[in-house]
Amino acid sequence: MKAVPPVDENLPDTSNVREWTYRDIARLPPAEQKEWKAACREELEALRRRKVFELVDRPKGRKVIKNRWVFDIKSNGRKKARLVAKGFSQVEGVDYDQIFSPVVRFETVRFLLALSALEDWYITGLDVRNAYLYGKLDEEIYMEQPEGFAAKGQEHKVLRLLRALYGLKQAGLAWWRTLNESMKELGFKRLVSDAGIFVFRDKDGGMVIVIVYVDDALFCGRNKALVNKMKAKFMEKWECRDLGEVKEFLRMRIQRKGRMIRIDQCAYLEKVLLRCGMQNAKPAPTPLPAGYHPEPNNKPVDPILRSRFQTVIGSLLYIMLGTRPDIAFAVTKLSQFAANPSQEHLTKALYICRYLLGTRSYSLVYDGASGLGLCACTDSDWGSDPFTRRSQTGYFLKLAGGIFSWQSRAQKTVAHSTTEAEYMAISDCSRQVVWIRNLMSEIGYELAPIPIAGDSQGSLFMSSNPVTESRSKHIDIRYHAIREYIENKQVEVFFVDGSDNPADLFTKNLGHVKFTKFRGQLGLEFYDSA
Q1: Domain named Reverse transcriptase Ty1/copia-type: which ranges (predicted)?
Q2: What does DSSP say about strands 79-85 and 67-73: parallel, antiparallel, or unpaired?
Q3: CA 69, CA 55: separation in Å to the nearest integer?
Q4: β partners of residue 72
């Protein structure tokens, strides 16, 4: 029998390196200390090369923000240290003003991947190293010297930040402004429909589309040589890591075979199942048990239970928003109780994990060879919430045989009839369709009216005919926009039988047979990567 080595309680927890402070480094063996301090020096040298700060006397009457070291071990074993400003100590109006930074929408990324499959575009990726350090600051910000690396003999001095640093509230906006100006210089035009998309056109009609999410970027287009040329110009301006043909983006694994593109979040899903302790649970056939309706919790808030529930439901939301539309209804329904969840709510959130465990190898598939164009489906479940009596709206948009945009949410007002609930749902769907239509128009595509399918004859009649009846005259004017869209031939509506409407999956908790039938129409397929 082998002896179990004693655990040194003075050593920091190696299972959670990101929680370490610089003082934890001092508790490590000398050899490891040397490696981590080398990583810190490497980070400081990178900041000096970019001229991120300058050493100055401490200003009188000005708040000096603090900082901390954040440590991590990369997948290749490399030790990484990053100096992060404690942005929560910044003073609004003095240290920062605007902080909003645009990023590309998830659905836009999926749409362009589907379009790439349909048009057989070449896609390649890169990430910008230390992107925030390129952002220039307009404000005068002072920061203390980093722990363990104060300049000898000048410990009383502070750093004046000249460029954005990770942790600053305005760091994302400063980087985006710098990026936007750079893309203009390269000849790219930012789209109005999505500020994270840039388009370049040359004199011969060639086009390159760039998708940007903070420091990650995808370059795509039909002409591979032109795409690589513009990518090379971009990399001349920034220090980048060339990722080659895209394999991953926003934690979505992207697999391509000819004109077929598959996306999934299997790796992230495995981490979620492990974190929730569900990796060995019994798989469930549907996201929620058939007929289950969650009820509000009227008991006092349990902080520990709430924290656990929010951790689980937050992880499930990210998976749902990324590549798993089949859990949209279940996740959005349970997330309504995140402020004061009950044990029953947590149990059902873990039930969704059991469903994902059994379908962990599913991926969204966009098949360019199918030639299938843009279409939408919509549905509602009238008065489905027994407590608020609000209806549930559900819709999705589909291209190249796979859905790229979906929605499942409670309606904002109580509907007086099934027709009214369906009318509000189809109106919400039409706005999303018109947005995608505008996006495609900016890229250079002119489309015929985009079909929207619904299963309510009454709502379809109201959409196509500007009638005012006693049962519908009270409907909010915002929902009547669909009539203008139809009149302008931007969309057209069609009837589909309720038993064949896959949008039903986004409005109610379906039984196994019907759920499986509609799931197969979303473009979700089992994929054995082995």
Answers
A1: 51-288
A2: antiparallel
A3: 19
A4: 80
Distance set, CA 71 to CA 14, 79, 167 (Å): 11, 8, 14
CA-based torsion, 131, 134, 138, 139: positive or negative? positive
34 token code pair: 């040397």
Structure tokens of 183?
A: 């893309």
Q: pLDDT tens digit string along 332-344?
A: 999 999 999 999 9
Which of 171, 524, 500, 146 lies closest to 363 in space, CA to CA? 524
- DSSP assignment of 373-439, as one string? --EEEEEEETT--TTT---EEEEEEEETTEEEEEEEEE-SS--SSHHHHHHHHHHHHHHHHHHHHHH
* Mean pLDDT of the residues in the chain: 90
Please report which helix (H) or strand (E) contains residue 492, including its range: strand 491-495
pTM of the model: 0.88
Cβ neighbours around 250 below 10 Å, total: 20
Tell me how far apart the alpha carbons of residues 429 and 177 are, in angstroms, rounded to a whole number: 32
| Pair of tokens at residue 218 | 């995808």
> Strands (DSSP E) along 144-276, which ranges?
158-163, 189-190, 197-201, 207-213, 216-221, 240-245, 248-249, 252-257, 260-264
CB atoms within 10 A of CB 371: 10
Query: In angstroms, how far is CA 134 from the centroid of its own chain?
Result: 23
Count of all residues that appear for the chain in the document: 530
For the chain, how are helix, strand and coil distributed in percent, rounded to 5? Answer: 35, 25, 40
CA angle 98, 104, 110 (to 5 degrees): 165
Q: Which amino acid belongs to residue 72?
A: D
Q: What is the dihedral of CA 197, 201, 206, 208, to 10 degrees?
A: -20
CA 406 from centroid of its chain's CA atoms: 13
Query: Which of 25-39, 46-60, 70-84, 390-404 is most confident?
Result: 390-404
Structure tokens at 159: 């750093």
CA-wise closest residue to 420 among 393, 395, 396, 397: 393
What is the chain's alpha carbon radius of gyration, rounded to the nearest angstrom?
A: 26
Written as one letter, the residue type at 488 is N
Structure tokens at 321: 């928003």
DSSP 131: G
Would you call 355 helix, strand, or coil by DSSP? helix
**Residue 96: DSSP 8-state:** B
Cα–Cα distance for residue pair 85/305, rounded to 1 Å: 32
Which two three-digit tokens encode residue 442? 């900016």
| CA distance linking residue 352 with residue 313, whole number of Å | 9
188, 227 Cβ separation under 8 angstroms = no
pLDDT of res. 249: 93
pLDDT for 1: 44
- What is the spatial distance between Cα 91 and Cα 63, in angstroms, rounded to a whole number? 8
H/E stretch holding 266 reads helix 266-275
